[in-house]
Amino acid sequence: MKVTEFITLKDIASMKIEPKGRFFSATDMEVEQGLTSDIYFVRTRDLLASLGLGETEVTAEVFSSKEGILAGMDEAVHLLRNRDLDIWALPEGVKMSAKEVVMRIKGRYRDFGVYETPLLGILASSSGWATAAHHCKQAAGDRKVICYGARHLHPSVAPVMERSSVVGGADDCSCILGALLLGRAPVGTVPHAAFLIVGDTVELAEAYDRFVPEEEPRIILVDTFKDEPEEALRVAEALGNNLNGIRLDTPGERGGVTVGLVKETRARLDQAGFEKVQIVVSGGLNPERMVTLAEAGADAFGVGSFIARAPAIDMTMDLKEVRGKAVAKRGRIPGVSKNERLVKIN
Q1: Domain of 61, in residue numbers
Q2: pLDDT at residue 210 greater than cutoff 60
């Protein structure tokens, strides 16, 4: 495959991009050309070339600012594909410690230096999302966690976030592309809009039961029109053994989903003989709330903003060798760092 040519300072000076008629997110080609990089990396590449140093061999290392779950490595390696580089990396999904080297790159600086910005961004954002999902899964224990975070992010990165959430421990995600990138089926039922249009929860539940394939779980929202425990019983009586679960997504205007609401709903379902009907909870969840709601009887969680808005885990790239000689900026130790967990990629 032909290697994409990096953008030059001369190209940038003459470039005009019309913002109308396009999404503002970068295309694959724009990322590969270096257009999402900071300008100083392009300037460095052109400057070194003017000094006859374009062929300089270096070794660079990327390390994490704090501990967490590493994600984004597959995409980072893809960014460096088809270039004459030796790459070592930690696998996606592993726990990384603070200051641990997660990636090592050896080759000519001109072949990857321009990518420092997107490379660090990929790893930082993806690892932040994966770590947040990991915390949610820890709080949930053996209960299912589904990522519903796509609505909280720009659509160009929503699939990256949802994919990262599963790498971090979420059981499933609802974003179509995010799931397909993992070779999975997206998970989700129907929103409140469907109930409002039909006008009655039970009527919509019965239609849903007829509409979806037999193997699909029947999980029905019960907070649209009536008291949640009352609506849960109406749906359970209408669908009988076909009902797999009810979902509580009570809005903050009514206090959100509380421990008391989950306890009452669970008790009333059990008393009516619907012990097998699970309770799925969503709406502004975080690990602390998930622990208390699980104790109250919640069986599964839909988590959105806590994962989507998770802070990135800052990544740093340092040159550690130049022409085979150990180097480092002040405050860092010169030479290649020891990390036996790194795996040779190519």
Answers
A1: 9-127+312-344
A2: yes
